[in-house]
Amino acid sequence: MTDSNQRNPSLSTPVSDEMAGEPAAPTAEQTAEQTAEQTKAPKKESFLGNLLINIIIPTLILTKLSGDDWLGTKWAIVVALAFPLLYGLRDLLSSGKVNFFSALGIISILLTGGISLLELDAEYMAIKEAAIPGLLGVATMASLYTRWPLVKTLIYNDRILDTDKIARALNRNGNTAAFDRTLMHTSWMIAGSFFLSSALNYILAKIMLVSPPGTEAFNAELGKMTAMSYPVIFVPATVILMFALFFLFRSIGKLTGLKLEEIVVQQ
Predict the structure, then answer these.
(1) pTM here?
(2) What are the angstrom distances between the C-alpha of 131 and each of 105, 242, 251?
(3) Position 1 in a domain
């Protein structure tokens, strides 16, 4: 009996574990799977939380708490902008690296606060609102002439698509050059969405900000402009980005012969 157990320890080990009251140790394969799941992808941001911190709370503070009975005009701006500012800084710290878009968002918030607290003319605010997405559009086009086009950061990256499989299929079909042209066209679409946002930002700021800076009315207008920026600016720009995404995916399918489910990274 002793010899049998020694020759086949798998017969005796489960009994020993149960008697000892201890669960069986995970196998190497199970440990690898658990580690892969823990490091697979960063936690997705909550859309509702993002909207609440960046739009709703600042809007309510600026429109409702700017009076002398509450925070006052200057402190209302400081408190309102602290929410998106701290949110952006948290994103930078949690990612462990400087993200171009997050950094630009933080700069935009600081400029908004600076222009408001210094009580500069509202024209500066309109220029700032137009400049941020305008710079993104210029950066998108300029990046086409570098080794790191922004379209690969935004859409064509290995977090969304199986780029290695796509590259192999393109090379096999002799369509690599055609795909480079597709990426260029997609980049122009993305740049167009930024330029549209730039124009709409400027128009919205000119229409909404009519009161003198440093007044309760100006703060209320700034809050309303923040709230209006979502439907007026974000929605049209998102429609263009979605069209660019559809164009890119359809082109990849034609040039590689692969189906959508074969190229999208499974989450």
Answers:
(1) 0.69
(2) 12, 23, 32
(3) no
